[in-house]
Design goal:
Beta-carbonic Anhydrase, Chain A; 5-stranded mixed sheet; globular; binds zinc ion
Length: about 160
């Protein structure tokens, strides 16, 4: 193993020693599913004061709805007791700070590879995109009847969750 995994294993050993989540059910304890960004400044359970087993979390670049995520959420609404769904992008997200063209040229410069067919889902206007994603999910006819979808933007400088819709 590499020193990289050695360090992670040491940290995990400490976690295992204090592990107390035995028997926690796989369903979402407070019926909540969060879709958010992969940004390292977001620690989802801490933000809402939750514990192991309380919430399902789906993460990607930007905390954006896409067909694959949408299917996961539909699945979660039925099989994992996720009756409340929150889509939560955040302030100062890299996905809203660059255009697709800028990203492609940056990646090409860094790698020397051809990124012409690479299509990252950059965000032009975070609030508008969030409202569109929430509306799209709310309109999904396959989502469990009664499941509520809300949208919020997380402020990485204050920790505040600002509800948008
Ligand atoms: Zn982000």
């Amino acid at each position: 193993m590499s020193s990289f995994t050695d360090e992670l294993s040491d940290s995990n050993d400490a976690y295992v020693k204090s592990f107390d989540a035995h028997g926690v059910p796989g369903r979402a304890g407070i019926h909540l599913l969060l879709l958010t960004c992969m940004d390292s400044r977001i620690v989802p359970h801490d933000i809402f004061g939750l514990k192991v087993g309380d919430m399902k979390v789906i993460r990607n670049a930007g905390g954006q709805l896409n067909p694959e995520v949408e299917q996961d959420i539909v699945l979660g609404s039925y099989l994992l007791d996720c009756d409340n769904i929150v889509i939560m992008p955040h302030t100062r997200c890299a996905m809203s700070s660059l255009s697709v063209l800028d990203v492609k040229s940056t990646l090409e410069e860094l790698s020397g590879l051809d990124f012409s067919a690479f299509e990252p889902r950059m965000i032009e206007n975070a609030e508008e995109k969030l409202k569109r994603d929430v509306a799209k999910l709310q309109a999904n006819p396959l989502l469990k009847n009664g499941a509520e979808v809300r949208g919020a933007i997380y402020d990485v400088d204050t920790g505040k969750v600002n509800w948008v819709c």
